[in-house]
Amino acid sequence: MWQILWVNPSAHPSSGKFISNTSGHKKHPVEAIQSRVGTVASELLSQLQDWNNRRQFTPPSDFHADGVNDYFISQAVMEGTKAHDILKQAPFLIPFTSRVKIFTSQLASVRHRQEAHGVFTRNRFRIRRDHILEDAYNQMSALSEEDLRGLIRVTFVNEFGVEEAGIDGGGIFKDFMENITRAAFDVQYGLFKETADHLLYPNPGSGMIHEQHLQFFHFLGSLLAKAMFEGILVDIPFATFFLSKLKQKYNYLNDLPSLDPELYRHLIFLKHYKEDISGLELYFVIVNNEYGEQTEEELLPGGKNIRVTNENVITFIHLVSNHRLNFQIRQQSTHFLRGFQQLMRKEWIDMFNEHELQLLISGSLDSLDVDDLRQNTNYAGGYHGEHYVIDMFWEVLKSFSLENQKKFLKAAGSASEEALDRLPTSATCMNLLKLPPYGSKEQLETKLLYAINADAGFDLS
Fold first, then answer.
1. CA torsion sign, 93 to 96 to 98 to 101?
2. I need a labelling partner for 119 at 20 to 30 A (CA). Which of 206, 216, 251, 324 fits?
3. DSSP letter assigned to residue 163
4. Catalytic site includes residue 429
5. d(C-alpha 421, C-alpha 400), whole Å
6. Last residue of a domain, which of 74, 94, 114?
7. Does residue 412 belong to any structural domain of this protein?
8. What b/e readout covers 277-289, taking b as 16+ CB neighbours within 10 angstroms?
9. Is 323 a domain residue?
């Protein structure tokens, strides 16, 4: 596949090369044959990759080409190039890390164009911490699409109406994004529900809780897009079938396990049921149960009078899965997607499968690669890579649980804590950690744990 599309692409039309068919009556240009082979091969491999995403039978790296280099990445960013066409036709050939580089380059290019045209706006939000969702909704909803692309600087106001100290160089905005997403996507708020695996999807009954629920879904879509646009990771684990909707893909029966594996098993049981299904007394209706209120919906006109039989059971199965995956949350998903697409273009999202898209949103679920972080850290203030305090620091960080490692990244990159009793502190706008020269690893561990678990906002920074 890589040979056809990149190494040995179709011959130039002026080459005049033709291949005759077996009868000898018709000749086909070489480039037309190669183009057709490339299209068919990419479609086949794309289907195989989709199947592998649902139930992995081979490592994702088996789909990657070996020849992707910096030159290819630089070309793939530019529309009209062969590399860009390959990215659109067969993104699975390109390693995930390379596609992330292309994605971030495309975002940087958008920012640069806006700055060049003088439309890179700066908006200021005044946010009450105890009304963060309400204030963020009112202020962000008033922004145009161009405004959303611009910088947003946040000032937090405490419960007494006093502005918290600190200048937002980016860190306060990151803290704002983390707090607003935590509040908005909390299942207790009622806009989202979670699967048995604690993965999020729109609540079909959101309209029973919030009168303006669809406007809020639009807001949340733009909020998620803004986080991705700014490269801010947010802890929002979505159900796979809902991530497919961000890619504008329709959901089918095979996607149902990511929403309701028990219902999926029941439907598959019906599919293979050998006895007379009509004896089960099933009809083309589905019962919705939202907040204790049961309602019946017909899957077909007159469905309450249409019994499920061996002849129509396949239709019943697909109608049930379509109802749960698509119909029930169609309005919520549509409004969320509209908000999301204000900043995230479809062609960017199409570069990634659902699992990779979740990585773009939340980062890796695996432990922090401390060694990689160490290799990419610069030192100042008398410290160097071999300093005994630095050695202790990396040993302590490596020993932390995944939860505490995440808290460290948040503290170092999106929250600032007061320097009380010589605690480690951070300058979040530049991802700077200020580390006092502790005398022992135990003391360093105690102070670091206290610092990353404190939650004083920016009031004392």
1. positive
2. 216
3. B
4. yes
5. 22
6. 94
7. yes
8. beeeebbbbbeee
9. no
Residue 30 has pLDDT above 80, yes or no: no
Strands 122-128 and 151-157: parallel
Domain at 404, CATH number: 3.30.2410.10
Any domain includes 378: yes
Output DSSP code: residue 256: G
Final residue before a domain boundary, out of 94, 119, 153:
94
DSSP state of 350: T
Say how many domains are in the chain: 2
- For residues 413 and 419, the answer to whether their CB atoms sit within 8 Å is no
Per-residue pLDDT reduced to its tens digit, 101-158: 999 999 988 888 777 665 555 788 999 988 999 999 999 998 888 888 888 889 888 8
CB atoms within 10 A of CB 94: 23
Of 5-14, 172-181, 234-243, the range with the lowest mean pLDDT is 5-14
- The confidence score (pLDDT) of residue 24 equals 53
Domain span holding position 439: 370-453
Please list, residue by residue across 324-348, b when 16 or more beta carbons sit within 10 angstroms of its beta carbon and e when fewer do.
bbbebbebbbebbbebbbbbbeeeb
Backbone angles phi, psi at 434, to 5 degrees: -100, 110
Question: Which SS3 state, helix, strand or coil, does residue 386 take?
Answer: coil
Catalytic residue among 154, 429, 444, 452: 429
Residue 455 amino acid letter:
D
260-281 pLDDT, tens digit each: 999 999 999 999 999 999 999 9
CA 9/CA 35 separation, integer angstroms:
8
- Tokens 């249409």 found at: 306
DSSP assignment string, 56-84: -SS-GGGG--TT--HHHHHHHTSTTSHHH
State the Cα torsion 8-12-16-20 to the nearest 10°.
50
Kindly give the pairing relationship between strand 200-202 and strand 285-290: unpaired
